[in-house]
Structures are given as structure tokens and as C-alpha cells.
Amino acid sequence: MAYNGLSFCAVCRFMQQRMPRFFYHLYSDTGVSRDAVGIVFPDEDGAILEAVRAARHLLRSPTEAGTSWTGWRLEVADENGRRVYRLDFADLARRLSHKGSGTLKDPGTG
User: Fold this and answer.
1) Do 69 and 89 form a contact (C-beta atoms < 8 A)?
2) Which of 12, 29, 65, 75 has the most crowded CB, counting CB atoms within 10 A?
3) Hey, which bits of 49-89 come out as E strands?
4) Is residue 13 part of a domain?
5) Distance CA 15, CA 105 (A)
6) What's the pTM?
């Protein structure tokens, strides 16, 4: 039996490959909110892009008067607890205000 040119066994092997899980920990001046569930992505790049999207959304969301993102950061960790990316909200806010849309990922900030 073939599926789109692949044997059934090849499809089964592909579906059995386990994608890695990444965790998003949000830090502020006063504490940390640790992600205990995580999200599955094919690779680190997908997890990092999602972190940037989430941070952009938070920065653009209405906040209480006087709320400052100074000191806030989002860290992405792999299943072993290794930090694969760190995004400081103040840096992202600066990039967004200077460049209009900002960059998705700056080299060397992982």
C-alpha cells in the first residue's frame, strides 16, 4: 500500500518520530511564571519564532496604566531545561519602535 508515493511503513516511521517540546518561561522584576506544559515544534527555530510572536502580542496588548516591560523577558527552554533563546521585552520594544516591525531573531541572543 502506498500513500502519496511513500510506502505505508515509511509513513508510519515518519509519524512515529517525536517532535521536541519547548517551554516558555516569563520573567518579571518580581518573579517568574514557568511553563509546565510546553508546546511541540519541529525545531528550535519554530519555537523561537513563536516566542517572538507571543512577546510582540504582549507588547501590543493593552496594559494597566504605568505598566513597564523593563525587566521582563521570555525564555525558551528545551525538554532538558537548556535555554535555547532569551528575549528581553525592553529590547524588543526598542526594536519595534525604531524599525516599525522589528526583527524576528537577532543572532547571538539565544
Assistant:
1) yes
2) 75
3) 73-77, 83-88
4) no
5) 30
6) 0.70
- pLDDT category, 9, cuts 50, 70, 90? low
Q: What is the pLDDT of residue 106?
A: 43
Which cell numbers hold the place of 30? 518580581
Q: Look up residue 79 and give its DSSP letter.
A: T
Q: How far apart are the C-alpha atoms of 59 and 90, rounded to whole Å? A: 9
Q: Are 48 and 110 in contact (CB under 8 A)?
A: yes
- Is position 5 within any domain? no
For residue range 53-70, list pLDDT tens digits in order. Answer: 999 888 887 666 666 777
Q: Is 78 inside any structural domain?
A: yes
Confidence at residue 23, expressed as pLDDT on a 0 to 100 scale: 98
Residue ranges making up the domain that contains 73: 20-99
Q: Which of 74, 78, 77, 110 lies closest to 89, judged by CA?
A: 74
> How many domains are there within the chain?
1
Is residue 45 in some structural domain? yes
**Angstrom distance (rounded) from CA 97 to CA 86:** 20
Helix (H, G, I), strand (E, B) or coil at 54: helix
